Amino acid sequence: MSRNGPLALGFHTVVVVFMMAPLVVVCLVAFTPENTLSLPTSGFSLRWFRAVFERADFIQAFYNSLILAFTAASLATLIAVPAALAISRYAFPGRNFFSALFLSPIIIPHLVLGVAMLRLFALMGVNGSFTWLMLAHVVIITPYVLRLVLAAAIGIDRSAEQAAESLGAGRFTLFRLVTLPMILPGVAGGWLLAFINSFDEVTLSIFVSSPATQTLPVRMYVYATESIDPMMAAVSALVIALTAATMIVLDRVYGLDRVLVGKH
Amino acid sequence: MAFLQLNALSKRYGAVDAVVATDLAVEKGEFVSLLGPSGCGKTTTLQMIAGFVDVSGGQILLDGRDITHAKPASRGLGVVFQSYALFPHMSVRDNVAFGLKMRKVPAVEIASKVKQVLELVRLAPHAERYPRELSGGQRQRVALARALVIEPPVLLLDEPLSNLDANLREEMQFEIRRIQCTVGITTLMVTHDQAEALSISDRVVVMQAGRVTQIDVPYKLYEHPRTRFISDFVGKANMLAGDYDALGTPQVRHEGGDGELTLSLRPEKIQLVDAGTGRVQGKVLDRYFFGSQWLYRIHTSLGEITVVRSNDGSPPLGRGTAVGLQWHADLLRVLAADEVHP
């Protein structure tokens, strides 16, 4: 690989600093002993972290978000993989329509979707249902999985599938042993992106979640509208730490390059 | 009946005829090449035999059995692709074992068969590697081993060497032929490279615009090309206008002749002799060195003629040298007009 020149190195540094600085500041603020959002000057304290764990509503919201993101991302992947395979290899009537339909939730503002779904769910009498919240999330995160799986499906060598067929593989075996492993980086990357998007979602969730199904971002948002104290920073720091830990474990166990880029 | 037989096999894509009523009979153990320029339908023909492309008309018979509409999996043919088509997430061993696993062969037997075939293609030490860790030639051998291990009745090779560089390509040509002879497997190879087809095939099938235009053993094909196109596509050829003399033998056009024939004369069939002797006089326009031979472009009254002379170690003729050109009259070939226009 070619090494970066001084200009590129400088640019990369600026980008990384720009992206990381807010995270670093939030993490530092989380350790403040003060009652206001401020950088710790007089020493470090864990009082705001303790405060988080004493709040059952936050813990519950975190679990809600985790389960919601996991099920929604998995369901979105189950929908997106067959859809992407069909779109990438068959010319069927309505192919462009389906392709556009699957990607349209990216274009429509979540605010609009949120209001529309609130109304729809009210009509259906399913407001506050976890299942319907989850399905709403599936709608908005499926495009991410579809995009990545589509890219992977277009990129694979179709003759490898033909080879497997001529060697005697049936349709299901072919998918399980050849096609799926070849598009796995796209599937895994798409799932991860969908998970993060669902976990992160505020705008739509505000409209369609109830106190019982409140997600962590919604809980945080509601809390922040009432009071501003460093507990928010502590929650953020915990989420960042959890994300980083997940990434490290994933990298150690499986290799992030392999999951997201497709290197073996 | 031949082992593999195509009867009036056709493929039509919309309004385009990709393959038109192709007949072919391949005997057991034979190595046959489908040769032609890109878009001539040779790959489509191979894909119909493999079962990847639906047949529009005609029949494919394998050992007397009609496989025209059988699924690829049930045909049991060995296929080697231009892109190798190895499974990137499997080791060499698992790639080769794939077909046997699909056939539910016992593990012990799989291990011994894989070992055997990897030895045949000289890859035994690399069994645990992944495709990305292998060179192009090695990948091609894995693809070959994977196709051979299931002991298919027919081996289909789709441009197997076109992704390799020139040196390796020649080496792999001999390798493929060696393996084919060792196993004795009936083989059909698609190629656009005439040298490749001539060097390793028992018979060559020339295709042009979806039709078979000549089927012959390589030597006959080269010496007796039927049409102008074939003469030009297979090897190099000088095209000369000619006519029949009083005895009905073809001759190069002379004063008063009407030149209604197209004659082909291979460049290596022409001798360069002293100026003033020979059939026609010329002047060296240009010369090119190929190591084992010299290629001369010579200006004559018949037009520009290419002459290939093997390098016997003597110094070459300089540009502008006056020379005579001599050849045996019976080496002139009368060519039919092209009935197909690609």
From TrEMBL, chain A:
<dbReference type="GO" id="GO:0055085">
    <property type="term" value="P:transmembrane transport"/>
</dbReference>
<dbReference type="Pfam" id="PF00528">
    <property type="entry name" value="BPD_transp_1"/>
</dbReference>
<keyword id="KW-1133">Transmembrane helix</keyword>
<keyword id="KW-0472">Membrane</keyword>
<keyword id="KW-0997">Cell inner membrane</keyword>
<feature type="transmembrane region" description="Helical">
    <location>
        <begin position="62"/>
        <end position="85"/>
    </location>
</feature>
<keyword id="KW-0812">Transmembrane</keyword>
<dbReference type="InterPro" id="IPR000515">
    <property type="entry name" value="MetI-like"/>
</dbReference>
<feature type="transmembrane region" description="Helical">
    <location>
        <begin position="231"/>
        <end position="250"/>
    </location>
</feature>
<feature type="transmembrane region" description="Helical">
    <location>
        <begin position="7"/>
        <end position="31"/>
    </location>
</feature>
<feature type="transmembrane region" description="Helical">
    <location>
        <begin position="177"/>
        <end position="196"/>
    </location>
</feature>
<dbReference type="GO" id="GO:0005886">
    <property type="term" value="C:plasma membrane"/>
</dbReference>
<feature type="transmembrane region" description="Helical">
    <location>
        <begin position="134"/>
        <end position="156"/>
    </location>
</feature>
<feature type="domain" description="ABC transmembrane type-1">
    <location>
        <begin position="62"/>
        <end position="250"/>
    </location>
</feature>
<comment type="similarity">
    <text>Belongs to the binding-protein-dependent transport system permease family.</text>
</comment>
<protein>
    <submittedName>
        <fullName>PhnV protein</fullName>
    </submittedName>
</protein>
<dbReference type="InterPro" id="IPR035906">
    <property type="entry name" value="MetI-like_sf"/>
</dbReference>
<feature type="transmembrane region" description="Helical">
    <location>
        <begin position="97"/>
        <end position="122"/>
    </location>
</feature>
<keyword id="KW-1003">Cell membrane</keyword>
<keyword id="KW-0813">Transport</keyword>
